[in-house]
Amino acid sequence: MTTPLQKTLPYDPVAQRALPGIQPLPPEEWLITDEAYEGQMALRDTLLADHRDKVLALDESAREAALELLDLVLEQAYPGAADSVTRPDGVTVPIDRDDPLGTIGRLIQEDVNILQKQGDEHVLTGGVMCFPASWTLSEKFMRPMVRIHKPVTVYDENIAKRVQRLFDGIRAGKPLWRFNVLGYHDPALHQPRTEDAPRNKKSPEPAGYLRSERQVMMRLPRTGAVAFIIHTYVIARKDAPPGALDT
Predict the structure, then answer these.
(1) CA distances from 138 to 48, 56, 58, 193 (A)
(2) d(CA 38, CA 89)
(3) Is there a domain that residue 231 lies in?
(4) How far apart are CA 172 and CA 218, in angstroms?
(5) pTM of the full predicted structure?
(6) Among 24, 159, 161, 201, which residue's Cβ finds the most Cβ atoms within 10 Å?
(7) Using one digit for the tens of pLDDT, what is the confidence trace for 185-219?
(8) Does residue 226 lie within any of the structural domains?
(9) Cα–Cα distance between 198 and 108 in angstroms, integer?
């Protein structure tokens, strides 16, 4: 399947920002539908049908949070939906409350992860990750934040504490967001990679594609879990903003 590419980003990828680059987000803007919707959703449907065990995981402890998130997705994107919804691309998706993350994965472009506080850290207790950028859900599932970021060398103890304070401070109705910018030679959206086989970033050729994740962090008001919501953009070099692929 041809990778559906976007041509624009809804933010400036070269804007200077202090790490971790967190900004407040209007509550109504946590989901986006963009020009690559039809192609991305077709790919999501295929991955969830043919490779479900690789792109979806849910611990029973996170089921109520997943159901709450499904309700919020329906309220935001498909208000009034009952038994099924018809997506903007014309595909009808049944609302299966026995499979909340699988249903979410077919309703929106975004990947979602659920993190719940266990002890002193938030743990990844559920996720539907169709478009991983060089990591695998199975290696991160039921792991705390520090372990999730292996093998990111810059994610040291100081940053871990800052990130944990950030997650502790997220308030219901006050979502936060950030973005990253990566240069890729392969435009494929589904790029799982194990921790023992990290992505080789060195190449004599310039990256042909800009890959950027718009990452939203949102407190679920009823269960108190944190939803980490990722909208993935892949843009060809010729369409990338000036300077975005210079690093």
Answers:
(1) 15, 9, 11, 11
(2) 6
(3) yes
(4) 7
(5) 0.92
(6) 159
(7) 999 999 998 867 655 556 668 899 999 999 999 99
(8) yes
(9) 28
